[in-house]
Amino acid sequence: MEQSLSPEPEGVTNATNDSVRGFLENLTGPSRGTIAWLVGDQAIVCIGDDRILRVVPDTTTADKTGARADLSWSTDTYEMKAQSNADIWVNGRKVGTAHLMQGDMLEFGEDGPMSRFRLCNQAFPTSWSVEDILSDAVAYARTSRRPIRSRLSHALFESARRIMLETTLIFRATVIVVLMALTLFVAWQYRSDILIARTMQQEALRLEVIASTLAETREEALTSTELATLREQLELQLVTSADRLSVLERRLGASGRVINGSIASVAFLQGAYGLRQKESGKFLRHVLGPDGMPLQTPFGKPLVDPDGTGKPIEFQFTGTGFLLKNGGHLVTNRHVALPWTIGDRPESFDQSGLEPEMLKLVAFLPGLAVPVDADLLAFSNTADVALLSLEQSATHGRGLILAQEMPDIGDEVFLLGFSTGLRALLAQAGREFLMALEEKGETDFWTVATRLSKEDRIAPLASRGIIAQITKKAVVYDAETTVGGSGGPAMDSNGHVIAVNAAILPEFGGANIGVPVLEVHRLLETIKPN
């Protein structure tokens, strides 16, 4: 009978259906993927001009065009005999006759397909197992006479096609589910890798930001060796500064008295801020070892973590500020009151998922034995000035007057401030004070300042210069100062504040820039309603 694309012979009566003994599974050529059923005791395999394989019964009326082989049933299988003008291969060997065995690979001529012989015993397969499909592929690759590359690619392609189309629905559904699960797993793994890489990058950036900020933050706690060295280095400078101040007072008379009268209103600011993780809301803290000491990374940087058990990591700073008359407000620079706003720190902290927060800010006033807590009251978005509030009791009898008009170029200007911060104060304190600190080991950032305050050793340094330039945004002068003097008052000869000392310009011979007093007036206007 003719070959059929359906797994079970069509149009065959039950009596004839019982005679189905086997089939040819076509693996190549135009007949690929079809089945030719072997029914009855005698059959002829034909290959037409269209290269399609047909199996017809061996009767006088059958169309035997393109006959290639005769099949005859013998006990339990078919015997195959090649037609006189046909070439037949069985398992890669050219034969004239063959006793067919289950799974034999048959090739009917150069233009015929490769087919696999199977006995079915009246059991009609509706699907193929993966084992059968792979077995067919291996048999094809082993017996085909095509070039090795061609036969391997064909075997792989056909195996994939048949697994997708000719296996059971359950198997295909299982494969689809497994592939979907694998795809989801790969996607999840990829996303996890991205998140891990992003977390590692953020952690590296966070450590870099912390390390660079710690490097920029002036750590003023001193060791005993540093105290001794500092004392030797600054003693001569202090004597010189004292002499200069004495000469200044003698030369200026009333102006010298103004400076002395202003000293009590100039505050030494000392503070520290920490970093809070935005996601968890926790401060970054030191990670402690079994001995209770802070751990460090292999690169010598402090090891910090939101879940650390140590103290919050501190970024310490110092600066200068001055009290206003009849207000209780203290003026300083914005970069002193908000030290994390310097340079690219805000962007770096934000990218690291960190939020700066002030941990402690105190003001030491000359003549007061204890520091006073300072709170941010207001700051300017356009100028480097800020206002702090102090307890009213600490400001009684103190305060400077703000000038109402700007000075002229060439006028004298007097600066008061805590240049070099704790180091200058320690140098001014004298040999005995330094020796006492060395003996007790009290070199902590906070302890040193408290000791200085208790012994009434908090006093700003004064310097004198000439105003070189005046603009709406800056007053430039050559009065000497250095880091730590930021936020101090720049006063005219009447003792009125004309600017807030803000920056040093080394490229201009050490000239200083002050924020014009007009910006302070503007900032005060913003808090009047409150």
UniProtKB/TrEMBL annotation:
InterPro entries: Peptidase_S1_PA, Peptidase_S1_PA_chymotrypsin, Peptidase_S1C. One of its GO terms (molecular function) is serine-type endopeptidase activity. GO terms for biological process: proteolysis. Keywords: Membrane, Transmembrane, Transmembrane helix. The chain crosses the membrane at residues 169-190. It comes from the Bacteria. This is Trypsin-like peptidase. It comes from Sulfitobacter mediterraneus.
